[in-house]
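Quick one - inputs below.
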Amino acid sequence: MNEARQIPAHVAVIMDGNGRWANKRHLPRTAGHRAGAKVVEKLLDTCLTAGVRYVTLFCFSSENWNRPADEINALFSMLDDYLQREVAPFRQKGVNFSFAGRTQALPEKTQGLMAGLVRDNLPPEREKLRLIMALSYGGREEIVDAARRLAQRVQNGETTPDQIDEAAFRGALYLPDVPDPDLVIRTSGEKRISNFLLWQSAYSEFVFLDTLWPDCTERDFRAALDEYAARHRRFGKV
Ligand code: IPE
Ligand code: IPE
Ligand code: MG
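Output:
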């Protein structure tokens, strides 16, 4: 008897290689980011077709603040345009939005656009896929922020140190209701986690694609889902 194909409920993606894509073409790095933005819809279409319920995109890391101001400004102005104009078709496909990170550090305009998208989220019964954008996100910062939140709750007398278990800790993360990523994909040939979802990826499967993010196609994403489907997850058991 054939077992049902294993589909990840949550796919998280480190979209890497925009700068190298642009360099190869003697274009400014921002041209790579612009080309990369167009690939997101291909990923979403692949995931919607496959029945993936959550997609997290690593859009801007806490360490990316160390890039030149010009690149950062261009990225956020592109993101603003994207949130304003490009995501409308996603909504029609049943996509809802969430954001993870120290988003209070983002430009006010960007924060306003994000809040608007969340406000317009479809009711749960109409949600086909949740798109989570990690912005000004660092896995270590998320863990530190959770520890702070729990310490504050102890200080307020709302909990005690011995009540802090894994479930309580998870509850203090940015998006406690989102299940852990089953599959983490990184593009561009780099094989590292770069401070992404450190707590949540404890038992994720990793797929590394050599393709630069702006060159990725639905075929690459389907190949990653195929590779995931063939993996045997053991979670420490035999
Ligand atoms: C990923 O592409 C996008 C962001 C980090 C914002 P990069 O900009 O890191 O591209 P490379 O790694 O320099 O090629
Ligand atoms: C990780 O890519 C962050 C994002 C994709 C947003 P980076 O390009 O910043 O990671 P490193 O510096 O190569 O580790
Ligand atoms: Mg990079």
